[in-house]
Specification:
Layout lengths: L1 H21 L17 E3 L3 E3 L3 E5 L2 E5 L14 E6 L2 H4 L9 H11 L4 E5 L7 H12 L6 E4 L3 H4 L1 E2 L3 H8 L2 H9 L3 H10 L26 E4 L3 H17 L3 E6 L3 H4 L9 H14 L3 E3 H7 L4 H4 L8 H20 L22 E3 H4 L4
Parallel strand pairs: 5-6, 5-7, 7-10, 10-11
Antiparallel strand pairs: 1-2, 3-4, 8-9, 9-12
Helix pairs in contact: 1-8, 3-14, 4-9, 9-11
Length: 363
């Protein structure tokens, strides 16, 4: 024991001295990528938004201290919570052009005192959204959840969320997160891994590239397999019911879905599963594509790019949700899920794994 103490204490003193000296020197900066949306690493949800005001894709975006898109709230107001990925976060849109802003305006114009919060985060799958609810969302005590998660779950990419999230909880990664607070560790990394800090070698950058449109790699798998998507979305709905929270599901659209084309596409199994889940729990579901067609929006009017809605599209989606809510109130109905168990669905996903060559022929 004495030998152990006499060998451990000098090592600890040396580490403390090294940390004190390291903190006197400025920390080296890691080269940040100049394209895309800047997200920060998160210990459980893989990534999250950085608080503050920033410009993203030409739009001013304000993120609050919880990592959510800023919303002006009143303490005594009823609260709704929008969940989903970049399409529901408001990719490329000013703060006042987002779905949650338009929906709050629509509800207030109809005499409802409701604050609509945005829990949607670019690239988020149902697994990340479930963790967001556990860590932040349920504590906000929303009365209604508006869930639009689908694109990111269905997307083909070079990683799967469940595996990445499990890896984040490994002892090695927990230790790395701990020592990253040490200035000595950062300086030693600079010394032994200079490529990490070298902007001329972006392939060595610690920043991971997240794709929510199309996978740039040769092979891809669903980020969240279909059966896990069904299980996770159902789990969110069941927990909402247990908390007496009403739920509405949103089927997102893109430029392809505005066309009425009788051809099977890669995201069909997820849309079928989402519809079946809504039917199982007897909750409303809104399909965005026919709404945009009804209001006569062309593809260029409805989307900034292939898949992200414009402010005009968000306005009509919000009006539809508001009208549905008014009808529900007038008829004294409820959006509260009716079941406490997930559905038993047999939906086949023949595209569960696909190469780029095959995917280029299918939307």
């Amino acid at each position: 024991m004495k030998r152990l103490l006499f060998s451990t204490i000098p090592c600890l003193l040396l580490l403390i001295l090294g940390e004190v000296i390291a903190r006197q020197a400025p920390l080296p900066a890691i080269h940040a990528p100049s394209v895309g949306m800047q997200l920060q690493a998160h210990p459980t949800r893989i990534w999250s938004m950085t608080p503050g005001t920033q410009e993203q894709f030409g739009a001013k975006v304000t993120i609050d201290r919880l990592g959510m898109r800023q919303t002006d709230i009143e303490t005594k107001s009823e609260k709704w919570l929008v969940l989903g990925d970049s399409s529901f976060f408001g990719h490329g849109l000013q703060d006042t052009e987002t779905l949650h802003h338009h929906l709050e305006t629509a509800l207030r114009n109809n005499g409802q005192t409701i604050d609509v919060l945005c829990g949607a985060t670019p690239g988020y799958s149902t697994l990340q959204t479930l963790d967001f609810l556990t860590e932040i969302g349920w504590d906000l005590e929303p009365s209604v959840l508006i869930i639009g998660n689908l694109w990111s779950d269905n997307n083909f990419d070079h990683f799967q969320d469940a595996q990445w999230m499990e890896e984040l909880q490994s002892p090695k990664n927990k230790l790395i997160r701990l020592v990253k607070h040490s200035a000595l560790f950062i300086h030693l990394t600079k010394l032994f891994r200079p490529d990490v800090f070298n902007p001329a070698k972006p392939e060595a950058s610690p920043h991971a590239k997240i794709s929510w449109v199309r996978d740039p790699y040769a092979e891809g798998v669903r980020r969240v397999p279909l059966d896990l998507y069904i299980q996770t979305l159902s789990q969110i709905i069941i927990e909402a019911k247990q908390r007496n929270i009403e739920v509405i599901l949103i089927q997102p659209a893109n430029r392809h879905r505005l066309d009425i084309v009788d051809v099977e596409v890669t995201w069909d199994p997820y849309f079928e599963a989402q519809r079946s889940i809504a039917e199982h729990f007897a909750i409303p579901i809104i399909d965005v594509a026919p709404i945009l067609r009804v209001f006569g929006l062309r593809k260029s009017d409805a989307f900034l790019d292939d898949m992200h809605p414009t402010s005009q599209a968000n306005f009509w989606i919000a009006q539809t949700i508001g009208d549905l809510w008014n009808d529900q109130q007038n008829e004294q109905q409820t959006w509260l899920p009716t079941r406490n168990t997930p559905p038993q669905l047999s939906i086949t996903d023949r595209w569960s794994s696909m190469s780029t060559a095959n995917r280029d022929t299918l939307p």
